Structures are given as C-alpha cells and as structure tokens.
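Notebook entry, structure prediction.
Reason for the run: the old model in the group folder had no record of what sequence produced it. Starting over properly, with the input documented here first.
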Amino acid sequence: MVRSEGLRLFAGFLGSASFLAEVGERLLARQLAKVSDEELGLTLAHVKLLTMVRWSGCETVSDLALFLGVTPAAASKSVDRLVQRGLLRRSTSLDDRRAHLLALTDAGGRLLEAYDEAVGRALQGLFGVFVTPELVAAQEVLDRIAVAIAEGQGPVEGPCSACALYRRDPCGVRVALERRCFFEERKGGAP
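New structure, fully documented this time:
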C-alpha cells in the first residue's frame, strides 16, 4: 500500500513528537530521582500533582481530578500518598465540610524547588546548543500544527489544560482557538 505524501509527513511528525515527549519524560524522571529520596517513591505524576497545588490554585481534590483527567477517587489516593510522605497538607474547608483543601508543606516546597533547579540545569545543557530564535520558531510551528488539528475537532467543553505543566503566557494555541484557560480561571496568572 502506498502512503500519501501528507500522511507520510504527518506520521513522521507525530513520530518525532512522540519521541520528543518520551525522552523528555525520561529526562524529567532522572532529575526527580536525583533530588528525591528513593524511599519517598515519587513519580512524575506526584510531581505534577504537587506542582498543580503550588501554582494553579488547585485547592481541592476535585480540581486536581479535573486537571489530571482522573476520577476524584484516583486523585484522592495520590493526595493520600503525598500527605503520608509529608509533602502535602489536607484540611477541611470551612465553607464546605465535604471539601478538603490542599497546600504544600515546607518539605513539598523544598522538593519542588530542588526538582525545578535540577530540570533547569539539565535543559540549559541540552538547549544551550540552540539559539533562541530556533527554539521560538520550532514552538511556533508546533503551535500552528496543533491549532490546525484542534480546529477540525470542534469546540471543547470546559477550560483547556492541554499544556499540562508546561504552561506559557501567552498561550498561542489557547488564544488562536479562543479557549478558556484552566490555570487562569483558578489562579489568574503565570506559574
């Protein structure tokens, strides 16, 4: 079977994007291992959750579940692990006794600071070989491709959180698609 040129290019692009995401996740996992006590047993999902609490305004398990795309029960289980490890604090809301409010502990904040510094050093070493205009141009191409694909999928219900922890301000994709931002609705600012 002969592939069309468009399909071949798209498959090549998605293959490269998938590989970039995979090696990026491995790099982040290595940096987490460098700064985290092995006994904590932290995963990148835990770091994502802690980071959400730190800067997005996700104060409840329901907010976290919405952002992470998991059930409230699954989010609650992860929160329980982080509370047990002393990285997250959970308290009952004064307004609604059924809601639990979340906050980082000092230990959770220190862990995220060390992780951010380790990732920053690793990325600086990797991206130091590129000049800023090259990286900006690559980002703009990726944004245009993402917008073109997303436009064909129709409107999205609820606020957008597609950028996950890699939020930037301004988000060209969100602006082009006229979507509401999960983070801006929760906190109203950049991380």
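Summary: Residues 130-191 form one domain.
The old model has been moved to the deprecated folder.
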